[in-house]
Amino acid sequence: MTQQGRYQLCNSEIVLHRNKQLKINNLDLAQRVKKLRHRKGISQEVLAEESGLSLRTIQRIENRDTVPRGDTLKRLAIALETSPDEIIDWKIHEDKNYLILMSLSSLGFLMFPILGIIIPLAMWIAKKDKIKNVNELGKSILNFQISWTLFLFLSYILLAIIFFTLIVSSSNSAMSIIIWQSWIPVTLIFYLYNIIAIIRNTTKINHNQFTKYGPSIKILK
């Protein structure tokens, strides 16, 4: 093969690689726009109206026929309540270690109950559209931890009401002592259940099994 022939072949391979990479990037971007639109709960028609773009443009973007640039990208970002960089740079991937870490992060409740919500919440927000299964797992963890915290505080309030009622009425001092002493066992039971739930589900994540935190109130759907 001549020098010119090798040069042309090399150029052809570069062009093919660039075209392949462009298709991958277009696919990621199209998935991102569609996912953001679904998360906001709007149709293509509504997105077109809110962004000031034509319905045909939205369809072409989600069908990977075109890549939004400049003003089009800015309009999309505003309508989808995100940033242009996030739309372009987004790429969903698997990261089991992150899922495991997010699950274990809810052990923060051992230092203070609210930390069991705040830490996984921060991790969920940071990666909910960038790592596979983070969105679903995050909602499950947060629903469980919020419910657990509410039940814990409600049990404290109930015990306090019963205790002070007995103290004020002076009807049964022995019973009031029993109620007061039950404070620690109730707390231990609540904390032990939470720890077991976290360890069990973290183990399931590690083995690629279905996780289920519960019982919980479905605050995040």
The number of helical segments is 10
Biggest sheet: strands, sense, closure?
none
Shape: elongated
Q: From the alpha-carbon coordinates, what is the Rg to the nearest angstrom?
A: 27 Å
Q: What are the low-pLDDT stretches, counting only 5+ consecutive residues below 50?
A: 1-25
Order of helices and strands: HHHHHHHHHH
Strand content: under 5%
Oligomeric composition of the shown chains: single chain
Q: Termini, distance in Å? A: 62 Å
Number of beta strands: 0
Structural class comes to mainly alpha
Helical coverage, percent range:
over 70%
Mean pLDDT across the residues is: 79
List keywords for this structure.
single chain; 221 residues; mainly alpha; 73% helix; elongated; disordered N terminus
